[in-house]
Amino acid sequence: MLQASQRTALSGPALIRLLARLADVDVPESRQSLSDRLSQWLGWTDAIALSSALSGNSPTVAANARPVGRVEEDECVRVRSLLAKAITSDSVLAAPKRRAPGMLPAAAPAHSSVPVETPADYALFRQRYVAQQQSMETAVGNLRGRLRGMLATRTPAMARLAVVDAVMERALSERERNLLASLPVLLAAHFERLREASQKAAAAAGDGDHTDPASKAAAVAPDAWLDVFRKDMQSVLLAELEVRLQPVEGLLAALRSR
What domain of life is recorded for the organism (predicted)? Predict the structure, then answer.
């Protein structure tokens, strides 16, 4: 009797677990501690700046700084909601009502008002994914900077935390950007796997294989794989948003503690 393979349950961010599922790979838990990993990521100039932020004199703060209020909380909620809505309402990721098999919407020529249908191509999805990443990076970066500025006006300990956060953002932003830039590449492989599986199922249906459920599904809805991919891409984008918002949540929690 064949037994299903047992995958190790990951305890990391939802983004890592989701990517492992889409890629159908078993990702082992890292045995490195966070401090060991950071020591590999930080350059010597970053290490000096971080050491200075941690061991230097506490920054001075204003005596009449106002406490964090609903404005800051609401702003964080607003930014998160706007970015999430931009992902879930993206027209490229929305399932079409009716469309010819294997086609995606494309811009119509300037002289025509009739929509043009083009074959499914990952390039459109990749372009939209990168655009969403740029929007997230800008909005989250601005929000993080504002919260850090507020933190710097609280207690000396909070002001020190703001300095540490600024140093860490500078030190890790390039690595983060490079790692997140690999997500469209991973999704491209997922796109091709889904399309290839659908093509094989459709071929089996065309050969008269009516016993395979996948073949029946491919014959009835040959573009169902595209809807699956759209949902998966949305899930990855939303999971990436949560990862990007983690520093913001940390700063907001520090502000609440005052």
Answer: Bacteria
CA dihedral 99, 103, 108, 112 (to 10 degrees): -60
Amino acid letter at 29? E
Instruction: State the pTM of this model.
Output: 0.78
- pLDDT category of residue 71 using cuts at 50, 70 and 90: confident
**106-144 pLDDT, tens digit each:** 444 444 343 444 457 899 999 999 999 999 999 999 999
